[in-house]
Design goal:
The protein is of the alpha/beta class. It has 2 domains: 166 residues, Rossmann fold (3-Layer(aba) Sandwich), CATH 3.40.50.1260; 207 residues, Rossmann fold (3-Layer(aba) Sandwich), CATH 3.40.50.1260. The chain is built from 14 helices and 17 strands. The protein has a 6-stranded parallel beta sheet, sandwiched between helices. A 6-stranded parallel beta sheet has the order 11-10-9-15-16-17, with helices on both faces. A hairpin with a 2-residue loop joins strand 2 and strand 3. Helix 1 packs across helix 2 and helix 11 packs across helix 12. The structure holds adenosine monophosphate (AMP). The site of adenosine monophosphate has 16 residues, from strand 14.
Length: 398
């Protein structure tokens, strides 16, 4: 059922606790990628324009319930303030009487950011007392942190028992629209491209998407387990022999449902790969079997052609997972070719989070895709059809 968003409720004059995802990368106190801060701005600006009293919260890193100075959100308050061109008060704790006193001072249209909620163990354990203490800070609640919506933590789930209304921000609304509605009732043909390391990580996504897609394309190391299932040899490639039967079932299901299931026609194989140095001693392209001693690291030119043609005729494309070890320059051609094909197609293009977002940004085509998910694990769980606790806890539209 559809959930309420900040557009469905009147938050004027209310103290609103907003769960953001400010889990930004930091190097010596400097934010090295501020895209998560940028992504949070529309919701914050909307709340300010509605004269809400805005109290932002987030986690940063994995402080494991301890106060860790390096994981303070203070640099985020500064960055927000300069982007929003208005002061953002940083409050040096996230619960307790001193914080409650501070949030009372926030006026309409003003903003404060409280300290990292994971500085308390009660955040991740969803401790009811910690959730109640967070609830003391505000009247209403907005969740806009899709990346943690698959976790029932105090600031994503527990706190909703103490605040009302509880609605989503624009980011979560968009995630649900693209990863949910646009893939549930897609414009057809609907082509799904899945890659990455392990079949075991993505088999539930494959299963769920076999119900919706017209074509499923498999690349990355995942393809080698499927190759084993088809009786081919994969040399030293990363594969999961324990999941050969699972891969076989997926192939059979695709056949039974009339879903086109495309595996790579050829692969780039290398010998003695040194991941850190990005080097190898020998390389070759293999059609069919990969020779012993070689490890598959990317899809080859024939696969690129096949996959590009398939993407070109799609009306909806969903992509999750790289086609090879894209972190290494000489193994990234397949991934970047897919990125280009997805970006250049006229289809609704949805990038399903994690490494594919990184890859499409590296390829320089990120401006041309329709939607890039901000979640990694959350995107996958949502695509699997799982209920996300941080979304489930929000008010439903009647
Ligand atoms: P995932 O998180 O499952 O999307 O996997 C992403 C990771 O899969 C990246 O770090 C890639 O380097 C890795 N990967 C993709 N293709 C291969 C391959 N052929 N061999 C080893 N690792 C791969």
């Amino acid at each position: 059922m559809a959930i309420k968003t900040i557009k469905d409720v009147d938050l004027a004059g209310k103290r609103v606790l907003v769960r953001c995802d400010f889990n930004v990368p930091l190097k010596e106190g400097e934010i090295t990628d501020d895209s998560r801060i940028e992504a949070a701005l529309p919701t914050i600006q909307h709340l300010v324009s509605q004269s809400a009293k805005v109290i932002l919260c987030s986690h940063l890193g994995r402080p494991k319930g301890q106060q860790v100075a390096d994981m303070s959100l203070a640099p985020v308050a500064e960055a927000l303030s300069s982007k929003l061109k208005q002061p953002v008060t940083f409050i040096e704790d996230c619960i307790g009487p001193a914080v409650e006193e501070e949030v009372q001072k926030i006026g309409e249209g003003e903003i404060a950011l409280i300290e990292n909620v994971r500085f308390y163990p009660g955040e991740e354990s969803n401790d009811p007392d910690f959730a109640a203490s967070l609830g003391e800070l505000a009247d209403a609640y907005v969740n806009d942190a899709f990346g943690t919506a698959h976790r029932a933590h105090a600031s994503t789930e527990g706190v909703t028992n103490h605040l009302s209304p509880c609605v989503s921000g624009f980011l979560i609304e968009k995630e649900l629209a693209y990863l949910g509605e646009k893939t549930a009732n897609p414009e057809r043909p609907f082509t799904v491209i899945l890659g990455g390391a392990k079949v075991s990580d993505k088999i539930k996504v494959i299963d769920a998407l076999l119900e919706k897609a017209d074509t499923i394309i498999i690349g990355g190391a995942m393809a080698y387990t499927f190759a084993l299932a088809e009786g081919r040899r994969v040399g030293e490639s990363l594969s999961e022999p324990d999941f050969i039967e699972t891969a076989k079932s997926a192939l059979e299901k695709a056949k039974a449902k009339g879903v086109k299931f495309l595996l790579p026609l050829d692969n780039l194989g290398v010998k003695e790969l040194d991941f850190k140095a990005g080097t190898f001693s020998d390389s070759d392209f293999f059609e069919g079997n990969i020779e012993d001693g070689f490890e598959g690291v990317d899809i080859g030119p024939k696969s690129i052609e096949l996959f590009k043609n398939e993407v070109a005729s799609a009306k909806t494309v969903l992509w999750n997972g790289p086609m090879g070890i894209f972190e290494i320059d000489s193994c990234n051609k397949g991934t970047f070719a897919v990125a280009e094909a997805v970006a250049q197609s006229d289809a609704i293009s949805i990038i399903g989070g994690g490494d594919s977002v990184k890859a499409i940004k590296m390829s320089g085509f990120s401006d041309s895709v329709t939607f890039m998910s901000t979640g990694g694990g959350a995107s996958l769980e949502f695509l699997e059809g799982k209920v996300l606790p941080g979304v489930e806890a929000l008010d439903k539209k009647s």
